[in-house]
Amino acid sequence: MKSALITVLGLLAPALLLAQGPPTMFPPVRGTHELVGAANNFEVEAGYRILTQGGNAVDAGVATVLTAGVTELSRFGLGGEMPLLVKMAGKPVVAISGIGVAPAKATVEYYTHRSPEPWEDANHMPAVPMQGIKSAITPGVFDGLILALEQFGTKSFADVAAPAIEYAEKGFVMPDEFGKFLNSYHDIMSKWPASADFFYPNGVVTKRGELYREPILAKTLRELVAVEKKTKGNRTKKLHAVRDYFYKGSIAKRIADFNEKNGGLISYEDMANFKATVDDAVTGTYRGYEIHKTGFWTQGPVMVQALNILEGFDLKAMGHNSPEYLHTVVEAVKLAFADRDQYYGDPRFSKIPAETLLSKDYATERRKLIDPKHANMEHRPGGFGSRIEVPPTIPLTTRLQSFVMTAGHPNQLAPGKRPRVTLSPTLVTKSGQLAMVMSTPGGDNQDQAMLQVLLNIIDFGMTAQEAVEAPRFQTEHFFSSFGNHEFVPGRVMLEGRIPRATIEALSALGHRVTVSGEWSNSSAPTVILAHDGVLDGGADIRRARYIFGH
Hints:
- By secondary structure, the chain is α+β, with helices and mostly antiparallel strands.
- It has a domain at about 5-10 and about 35-280.
- It has 20 helices and 18 strands.
- The strands form five sheets. It has a seven-stranded antiparallel beta sheet with strand order 2-17-16-12-11-10-9. A four-stranded mixed beta sheet has the order 1-4-5-8, with helices on one face.
- The longest helix is centred in the middle third of the chain and has 21 residues, at about 325-345.
């Protein structure tokens, strides 16, 4: 799934001094006008095309995401979800919640008593299936995009949808990751004939490097464009008509009908009642920078919490990726994620102790829990408050599995509620001026990876490309946001480029270390730095991210 980051650049204040370093695997991409970063070259081209046609950064961002719904279906679809951060020149950062909600029929009782799916083991199955239509929430991304376009963009829907329609209709060359997804999921996709027909034309897997078309999706996007064209009135009325066709018109009826015929829970009323919203961003500070994240309906604030803890350490003096540094950052992340597991959820349904969680005083107390000589194996959320143990045209999501069934938990499943998602874009300012934007795939690892990239830049002076390529850790010392929500105490996965002596030192401190491949970290950030009128881009090679501009 997708998290999106849209910014409009104003005057750029001096920010980061970029040190010289060794050559990177992906060449640095820098410019003075605009950069677009995304998952593949098709998405980047879509955004850049809109910029060359006079669109602003929001227009370009919407076009990029629509194209992702065509060319990145291994991870994202227009039936999915998407939080956005928007920074207009001279304006505060705002968040757009393009996150769907649980259908009216999706209750704790329903999932407690459900039967196993054909592929599940009845003795070891999660409350919500990890795959299939029963794990879908209402599509949120499309309304989020229309809301962003209406309030902050300038172009028509037809304009921003043109690249996506072109790629769906005329075809695009199959990217490596999408191709691998189609190959590995071929057997399980056969359980859903409509999905198999969509993803495997003539029943054949499209190999990477071959031309791939999505005529059904192209037809759906053209239907939306036609609605805009025939609607009378101003730009706002036309965009509302596009939105209503998706959520109250033919597309909504098709999604509801498909659910009813295939055991899903999304009804027409669920579609018609959904509404994306503009929310306040969560903001913290770190070493003179303002860190902006989406709210507690995502895991975004966990980065602010971790940075508050880490601000009390001289990380630079420890040395980048030294045993002391990695131990300190891992332990801070574990504490921040424990609070995520315990206290985060949809604020519309639950009272979140946000002021306390984000405060520097609270971080000071949490910092005292880090033992420099020992890795803690416990799950240690803060001790305040009550303690709780813890269709054929538009591909749908499986995000409902991120809910928990625990009574009273802020993230307990309830109809109409947003799951606490892992999607988590990042925007950084300094004295109110844009300094950095960043986003990544990677589930629970997203904020761990982006935290390390941010520290690489702010504390160690790396360029954008150096920062995303540097070796990283990934801890699983939290309750997973997916499946059975397993807790794996102490596990830390390190990339093989980290020296053997460092790995042994972390093991000696008690970390349960697993060493994986040299470029095996599951996240892959793209990042753009803004400093002294220069834009400096970084695209992680781990999952073939791409960036371009001038």
